[in-house]
Amino acid sequence: MSLAKTYNPKEAENKWYAYWMEKGFFRSTPDHREPYTIVMPPPNVTGVLHMGHMLNNTIQDVLIRRARMQGKNACWVPGTDHASIATEAKVVAMLKEQGIDKKSLTRDIFLKHAWEWKEKYGGIILKQLEKLGASCDWERTKFTMDPDLSDAVIDTFIRFYKEGYIYRGVRMVNWDPQGKTALSDEEVIRKEVNQKLYYVRYKIKDSNEYIVIATTRPETIMADTAICINPNDERYTHLKGKTVLVPLIDREIPVIEDDYVEMEFGTGCLKVTPAHDLNDYELGQKHNLEVIDILNDDGTLNEKAQILIGEDRFIARKTVAKLLEEAGQIEKIEDYKSQVGFSERTDAAIEPKLSMQWFCKMEELAKPALEYVENGTIKLIPEKFFASYKHWMENVKDWCISRQLWWGQRIPAWYNEKNEWVVAKTEEEAVQEFEKQGKSAQGIRQEEDVLDTWFSSGLWPMSVFDGVRNPDNEDFKYYYPTNDLVTAPEILFFWVARMIIMGHDYTQQPPFRNVYLTGIVRDKLGRKMSKSLGNSPDPIELMEQYGTDGVRVGMLLSSPAGNDLMFDISYCEQGRNFANKIWNAFRLVKGWETIEAPATVAQKSAAYWFENRFNQAVVEIDEHFKSYRLSDALMATYKLIWDDFCAWYLELVKPAYQAPIESETLATVKLYFQKVLALAHPFMPFLTEELWHDELFGERQPKDCVIVATYPEIRPFDEAIIKEFEIVQQIISEVRNIRNSKGISPKVALPLAINTTDVDLTKFRDGITKLANIADLSFVQEKVTGTVSFLAGKSECYVRLDNENVDIEAERERITKEIEYLKGFLVSVEKKLSNERFVQNAKPEIVQNEQNKKADAEAKIKILKESLAGLE
């Protein structure tokens, strides 16, 4: 192909993704190879690609592409989550726009609308992931409400019920009045809220006295069933055994005593509202108090409130406060800050509510899931998340698994006309179960509630391979346990812990080996990216503007595991520039004419150096991947290609303007170019595939794609040649700096003498001459006076400058300033080394490093003084 001046990402992306799909490179079936498996955290079926998805799936794609190139049988399973609360809300909103109220529909008709919505919109995010280059096995795409996956969920509910982990009962739950469903503790977001603290007067019966109670929720006083005092509080001894009247409704309630009440908080008295506060509920159970629930499921007041019936709870709060003031029952009102729970899905303020729900006992189930992480069977990356994981698992509460929704897996419980119930998979089996228990199945009906979405996604690593229903199938035995899970820390408990729990319960194995926890994508001001703030770019637009490879590189350059990514568009520009750098390097090589000839000594030396530098980089990159430092792995790849390959190796071997290059050297360049393309492929799949197929590398067969090429293997490297070339790089850079500081044109060739004692640089003579533009390069055994000198490693280098090119006074001033700076630096180092405490307590390598700094500074001062003397 003829290479355009600039890379056209869109053309390459469309072409190669379609080609990879056509040739089945993403497809995986069990075979003799080592499997490498990732299951995608299924995005909500309601979702569209955002920056968090972008980061998460880019990391997964890098890991899967690298494993594929390493000869492993790479299987990346994609899919979506049915997201009960979010999806039902979307469908209800859609129906509302059409003038249809959910309440007017039967369950079956509503679900028909929901499935139609899912078919229309549910696949958007997966199509967007194709644009990202995600090399998933799309033939394995799963949805958490696929019949086989739903079947596995129902089987698991029945299994857990039979094992004694699932029970039904009235408990205080987190109630979302907007979603009209119960939530688990993990679905509640705590936020600090500015509130009012109302000091309310409760009249003591048969007395002119009153007691003052502080509350942030005056709208619940109609549900009060007691006033509680601390038995040790002498202020309220006279109230023991008395009753008070609830303001506004004058219902009589007792004064009870319990040391639960903090005497120092508020007024030292507590109103007890068992139906609307978890602690009050437990206090009510202890003292056998009446429970009066005054709120409807939608957060409005019901008939039990006696006043303001049908009023929204927050409007009622203001109204009640006003009525209390008018009745003279408000002592005072203060500003107050407190933590309030909000629904993760709807952002509605949570109501504690007594409700009949289904629960899963977690204490025993959680123990193996904690042990896996404690003993290193499962690694959390980074380890900093272990402490919070351990705390949660050791303090785990029973999980409310029922949701008052229609979209989801319906709980397999069945009721008769007496409201007696059994758990069974089908109505037929339920009838048999009733009969077995000697009960009537008359009026049989199924539970209306569905299961919490996390209950189904907890089975994901097993159910995508049908491992729950059919554990002996070939796929499950081959791919499970999976290898790496890449997800966000905020669902460590929602999802990761539950997958471990369910995986162990079924298989006695962990579902994965490593959990890579990504950070949150934030803007450069540190704010979390969100639609509401308007600070989140559209990933699709970013890819259109900067190319997919550019955006992938931009995101990964600054995404260390577990640490938040401060995203800036400039990272994408940097990624695009990197792609253009590789493209232009390829154009340069492709433009060379060849001559049949062996490589020169200089070209062979450059090739030997680059081969060893490449092998060194592969070891570094492999270490980064082993530690899941993907950002560091990319940066090491970036520097190898941009600096070592493009800026040094190609510059060393490229022929003079319009001159041909030796055929042996070009063959070597092509070999190394393919190696760096293979190394870069997991990060930059499209550009590397585009260049890989150029005729420069010869004719390619359809199977000869970089996506399945051999990933560079770890090989030994010669450290000595790498260190020698570092000195060469220093020499060339210093000569260039001298030119810049003195305003000497790069075209002016300068004489250079090198006095080297510890390395042989003669093999790089031509390279130094060429890249530093040296007129006469000599290797000497003595000092050369009347020159500008510098140190490169331990080699003393001397550049002779014509007086007409040098301002002697300015040069003398520059050298003097540098000597003074180094003397100051030397004093600070010597001070540290003279500190006995430092020398005794610091690690030996740190002390040695300081001693090296001292020797280096002394050597530089010495040579600068000699340069200064040469100017006299």
Rg, alpha carbons: 36 Å
Structural class: alpha/beta
Q: Beta-sheet strand percentage?
A: 15-25%
- The CATH topology of the largest domain: Rossmann fold
Strand elements, count: 31
Helix content: 40-55%
CATH superfamily of the largest domain: HUPs
CATH architecture of the largest domain: 3-Layer(aba) Sandwich
The biggest beta sheet is recorded as: 7 strands, mixed
**What would the average pLDDT be, to the nearest integer?**
91
CATH class of the largest domain: Alpha Beta
Q: Which spans of ≥5 residues are poorly predicted at pLDDT below 50?
A: none
* Number of helical segments with 4 or more residues: 27
Shape: elongated
Number of domains: 4
Quickly list its features:
872 residues, four-stranded antiparallel β-sheet
Structure, briefly:
The protein is α/β, with parallel strands linked by helices and 872 residues long. The chain has four domains: 1-20 and 586-717, Isoleucyl-tRNA Synthetase, Domain 1 (Orthogonal Bundle), CATH 1.10.730; 31-160 and 364-397 and 447-561, 3-Layer(aba) Sandwich (Rossmann fold); 181-351, Valyl/Leucyl/Isoleucyl-tRNA synthetase, editing domain (Isoleucyl-tRNA Synthetase, domain 2, Alpha-Beta Complex); 747-870, no CATH class.
